[in-house]
Amino acid sequence: QKRKRLKCRNATACKGIRSLSANHNDHFLTNKTIMMKRKMLYVLMSLLGFSACSSENAVLDAPQVYDVSRSDCKRSASKADSRPEYYEAVEQTKATLSLTLAADGVLKGRFENVTDLCGIDRFSVEARMISGNIRLILRPNYLQGGEQLDCICVYNVDFKARRFTSGSHRLQVYKALEGESIDRARVLYDGQMTLQQGQTVQLELNR
Asked: Measured between alpha carbons, how far is 157 from 173 in angstroms, rounded to an integer?
């Protein structure tokens, strides 16, 4: 239905009618604006809630590394006390990484023949899943003054990590000092590999 237009017989009456009509329109626009703002606020809160839930799930689903241990020094050499060819042989020892996925989603890993300084206190291992890619970071932690020792050792480092799945993954392995960013880390491996329950994958690492 069309709205009826109010007719006025004199200027004063017309002015009053126009004033009432303007106030009615302003009130209508104000209510409409408030409703639009409420809808926008509701949408924004919904998006923030979804983002928070996604972030929480990402944290809960992140791999958890535990039972990290290192072997004693398997071989050692010193520039001052060892023959040059022996020192070079120890320094150039090939390191490998073996990964075995258990049925419960636990990944058992071993860094074998990792060469580092003799002043190692322990190693730490970090694991991350980023868009289906696996990133492992091996970090040596030195004893006080251990970084100044003229001696290198060969170690094995064992670890376990939860929440891994079988399938094809891009694996990135880094070696970095404690607190050092990935940008400055040394890349030990970067390539595709396939995890299958009960099977062991063995990879040769870069020096």
From this structure: 14
Distance (Å, whole) CA 77 – CA 135: 31
CB 175 within 8 Å of CB 186: yes
Q: Give residue 188's region: left, alpha or beta (phi > 0; psi -120 to 50).
A: alpha
Residue 109, pLDDT > 90, answer: yes
Q: What 3-state DSSP class applies to 139?
A: strand
Tell me how far apart the alpha carbons of residues 66 and 105 are, in angstroms, rounded to a whole number.
14
Q: Each residue of 31-68: pLDDT tens digit?
A: 656 667 666 765 566 555 444 333 333 333 578 999 99
Q: Which of 64, 90, 70 is nearest to 141 (CA)?
A: 70
Element (H or E) spanning 49, and its range? helix 11-60
Contact at 8 Å (CB) between 70 and 143?
Answer: no
| Identity of residue 74 | K
C-beta separation of 138 from 114 below 8 A: yes
Question: Residue 135 forms beta bridges with which residues?
Answer: 128, 172
Torsion of CA 50, 56, 60, 63, to 10 degrees: 100
Dist. CA 108–CA 177, nearest whole Å: 23
Q: What is the mean pLDDT of residues 89-109?
A: 95
Backbone phi, psi, residue 165, to 5°: -125, 155
Query: pTM value?
Result: 0.69
Kindly report, residue by residue over 150-169, the tens digit of the pLDDT.
899 999 999 999 988 899 99
